[in-house]
Amino acid sequence: MIRNLIPRSETTGEPLAPSWLSIAAFGSMHLLAFTAPWFFRWDSLALGIFLYWLTGSVGICLGYHRLLTHRSLRLPQWLEYIIVTIGVLALQGGPVFWVGTHRMHHAYTEDGQRDPYAASRGFWWSHVLWLLYPHGDTFNRQAHQRFVPRIHRDRYYRWLETYFLVPQILLAGLLWAVGGWSYVIYGIAVRCVFLWHCTWFVNSATHFWGYQRFEIPDSSANLWWVGILAHGEGWHNNHHAAPNVARSGLTWWEVDVTWWFILLLERLGWASGIKRPTASLGSKRLKQNRPSEAIALP
């Protein structure tokens, strides 16, 4: 892992040039989060935990990932817009960038040149360095648009892509008005930094540790603690075996809180066309290196 702390071009072998703006932005937010002990209040901590679930599970895992990226369910347009806007509040970029890079990841998994956060380039690259060192088409807007033509045609999503910081600024102003700087620190800085790393662990840790239930041509694995922290996304081998399936945790003990929320939306009559795991998925099971627990298929 240490050898990859200085990323190099896959084609020329030369060190990649860092984006000092990105380093300053991510670094500043981390420093702001480290001030949390001086602003601690129990209500602020509760607020941060709630927003971590709302923006992480509902916004990113459901909105950006399972809904926009993989189209594993359908929602009414008004509800889709609300959930994707919640995803913007996770401060992980606009929907065109997020969905575009994730579709690149699935199209070219672990290709060191074309997968934006290829685990083949090392843990730290797939965790965070890919965001700090521009590489390939990772930040190429035209490349993103080719991967997400439907999203790019949507006027509201194009607005969110350009002005994704605006909802965050409005939220910060609201939190400051209601609870002062303590709410801002826990509701914005601590929550965003913690959620960033939980999301990044899906790209990094689940390609280095865990168990593999399905025999697929990449290193994706199921890792229990990422499954919990990342709202069900840590069952990454399951996901790579069937990316368009809305459910990532396939057994009762593979906790997938995002799936539970999808079931709630279905019961309310707001979610339809949910793509569930089928019996054919069971045929991909590995004969070794897997838990003995049977897959629970609906």
Class by helix and strand content?
mainly alpha
Give the CA-based shape. globular
Number of domains: 1
Taken as a percent bin, the fraction of beta residues is under 5%
Give the terminus-to-terminus CA distance.
40 Å
Backbone CA Rg: 19 Å
How much helicity do the residues have? 40-55%
Low-confidence stretches: 287-298
Let me know the number of strands.
0
Q: Mean of residue pLDDT?
A: 91
Number of helices: 12
Major beta sheet, specifics? none
Q: List SSEs in N-to-C order.
A: HHHHHHHHHHHH
Structural overview:
- It is a single chain.
- This protein is mainly α.
- It has one domain (19-284).
- It has helices spanning 20-33, 42-69, 77-88, 95-107, 123-132, 141-147, 149-153, 155-162, 165-203, 224-229, 236-241, 257-267.
- The protein contains twelve helices and no strands.
Summary keywords:
mainly alpha; disordered C terminus
Protein topology:
Blueprint: H1 20-33, H2 42-69, H3 77-88, H4 95-107, H5 123-132, H6 141-147, H7 149-153, H8 155-162, H9 165-203, H10 224-229, H11 236-241, H12 257-267
Helix pairs in contact: 1-9, 2-3, 2-4, 2-9, 2-12, 4-6
